[in-house]
Amino acid sequence: MSRYRGPRFKKIRRLGALPGLTSKSPRVGSAFSRSGRKSQYCMRLEEKQKLRFHYGLTERQLLKYVRIAAKAKGQTGQVLLQLLEMRLDNILFRLGMASTIPQARQLVNHRHILVNDRMVDIPSYRCKPRDLITVKDEQKSKDMIKKSLDSFPRNNLPTHLILYPQKYKGLVTQIIDSKCLGLKINEFLVIEYYSRQTKT
Length: 200
Description:
Keywords: Chloroplast, Plastid, Ribonucleoprotein, Ribosomal protein, RNA-binding, rRNA-binding. By secondary structure, the chain is of the alpha+beta class. The chain is built from nine helices and five strands; from the N terminus they run ααααααβββαββαα. The protein folds into two domains: about 10-85 and about 185-200, Ribosomal Protein S4 Delta 41, Chain A, domain 1 (Orthogonal Bundle); about 85-175, Structural Genomics Hypothetical 15.5 Kd Protein In mrcA-pckA Intergenic Region, Chain A. The chain is elongated.
């Protein structure tokens, strides 16, 4: 299944706020109402979709991350969220250098971003503690990011990141604490959704 490119507001009306997909918020009472109680499968599917659309992943990409998390030490759900949060496109979004994750992905694809002074054009690049994220030293690159930085509320900056807005730089200080996520998600339901596909 390819990456979603359809109407974004339709998704947030159904799944709730998805800050990575769009900065818009659903109006009160705008969510679709469904009669009856949701099945367990429906709840797992919605949580999976919420995670997928927020981070802008294809179905295959998300399944790959779930399988990596299942093999890692620690709780699979928390490891999964940490893997997704440490993606370069998400780090740019969380630093306020882009207003959405799709916009951050475009910045990376168009080679506007450096990691530790090296050009990186892969949005899924996994950042590590002490990685320094900088904007290419060209006025065009800085102009594209300045608008997002100017409108970014500093109190939204996660504790694992440090932002130097005047220098167009950001520093990753540690692996994110799952309590600091900007998305309300039940990651255990996501793992349950994929449980059959991750069994070896």
